[in-house]
Amino acid sequence: MTPPPPRVLVVDDERYLADLVATALRYEGFETAVASTAAEARTTSFAPDLLVLDVVLPDGSGIDLCRELRRTGQRAPVVFLTARDATEDKITGLTAGGDDYVTKPFSIEELVVRVRAVLRRTRPGEWPGERLRFADLEVDEDAHTVRRHGEPIDLTPTEFKLLRYLVANAGRVRSKRQILDHVWEYDFGGNDGVVQTYISYLRRKVDAFDPPLIHTVPRVGYVVRLPENRPPRPGRA
């Protein structure tokens, strides 16, 4: 029997954004509902498997709402949305019972990947991952494999997380700080030079094929995209 789709409640007072997120998640196979306030989230009859929860709501704090849910025994994981990107804010959200933290502005692709990752981590075996594709590159989350032009590429766990994050945000430049937060997460104690090191590792493996997909934007960060005015061509460089 096919398991029911995971249910996601999107709580955000920016109605356009909430509807956009809910629609994107429905397109990816989730069942969704939307609430604009903490009060609506408390009283909805929709029983979510996960909440996408804005930190700032018109009638209170999403972090306080998360604490309240945890006190009352509700264990549905929470992915916070916020315009705040300070490490202290992220730690506050996570210690309140949140499971992940996405900073606005964000790509819908990234949010979907992180929602799936949280569900797999908190409810292992119930919901599968997905395959991310860009040009001739394929990242299979369930199998933990990477292929270009159908050929396997052997990556370490950290290289895999880094590539998955970049591919989920294909076309969007990610800074070293954003990469550290999302790949090494919040307890990383080193400097951002580790990002440059792992980008070089990835390039040796992923960009051994032509055309190169991992690009540096000077003084900004890194992005997965096709070279300008150059169509993809399979094979090794």
Characteristic terms for this protein:
237 residues; alpha/beta; five-stranded parallel β-sheet; four-stranded antiparallel β-sheet; 8 helices; disordered C terminus; Sig_transdc_resp-reg_receiver; DNA-binding; CheY-like_superfamily; Sig_transdc_resp-reg_C-effctor
Write the layout of secondary structure elements.
Layout: E1 7-11, H1 15-27, E2 31-35, H2 38-43, E3 50-54, E4 56-57, E5 60-61, H3 62-71, E6 78-82, H4 87-95, E7 100-103, H5 108-122, E8 131-134, E9 137-140, E10 145-148, E11 151-153, H6 157-168, H7 176-184, H8 193-206, E12 214-217, E13 221-224
Parallel strand pairs: 1-2, 1-3, 3-6, 6-7
Antiparallel strand pairs: 4-5, 8-9, 9-10, 10-11, 12-13
Tell me about this structure.
It is a single chain. This protein has helices at 15-27, 38-43, 62-71, 87-95, 108-122, 157-168, 176-184, 193-206, and strands at 7-11, 31-35, 50-54, 56-57, 60-61, 78-82, 100-103, 131-134, 137-140, 145-148, 151-153, 214-217, 221-224. The chain is built from 8 helices and 13 strands. It is 37% helix and 22% strand. The longest helix has 15 residues, at 108-122. Mean pLDDT is 85; it is low at 231-237. Helix 6 (157-168) crosses helix 7 and helix 6 (157-168) packs across helix 8. The strands form 4 sheets. The chain has a 5-stranded parallel β-sheet, sandwiched between helices. A 4-stranded antiparallel β-sheet has the order 8-9-10-11, covered by helices on one side. It is an alpha/beta fold and 237 residues long.
